[in-house]
Amino acid sequence: VEFSQNLVELADDLDEKEKESLIQYHKMLYAVTVEKIVEIYRCENQEQNPPWMQPLPLAKMRFLTPKSVAALTERVQKEVCADLRLMSKVARESLLVRWAGKKRDRVDEILVRELQEEESVWTDYTLDEVVVKDQMTDTILDSLVEDTALVFSRIYSKISKKKK
After folding, report:
1. How much helix, strand and coil, in percent to the nearest 5, is found in the chain?
2. Report field, pTM of the whole predicted structure over 0.85
3. How far from 115 is each of 83, 92, 107, CA to CA, in Å?
4. Could you tell me if 92 and 116 are in contact, meaning their C-beta atoms sit under 8 angstroms apart?
5. Whole-angstrom Cα distance, residue 10 to residue 23?
6. What is the DSSP letter of 38?
7. pLDDT digit string (tens) for 37-60?
8. Radius of gyration of the chain from Cα atoms?
């Protein structure tokens, strides 16, 4: 899918630099919009992870994909506006302001935004789960090998006693 300059309506009173700037702005919006749409529907062709890895929530992701053009348009508009900082990403900020009961300065706003963006890193335990599963697998395998060696040594000692 390519961007077409014919889709952009340019006013006659603009000079060449302004027209070029407007076209570049629309190209950027078009590219971001296409990127967002591809990101939204990426789960449609995605396959499930192998059994030993953390399963992907494909059913939930497919359920959350927009089913109509209006829903898709609304979601893409929200995400593009959030990326361009035209509106806040999270509505919880206003809730925090009401809860705290104080007017926030610019530093507080930056801190809250950074904390909200980093929250998923702090609450995502998938990597920890994989490490624990690997450790458990190693422990179980070591135990099985040790038990098997013990059983074989007992069998060998019984055979050697019978021969004597």
Report:
1. 70, 0, 30
2. no
3. 17, 12, 12
4. yes
5. 9
6. H
7. 998 888 888 888 888 777 888 888
8. 29
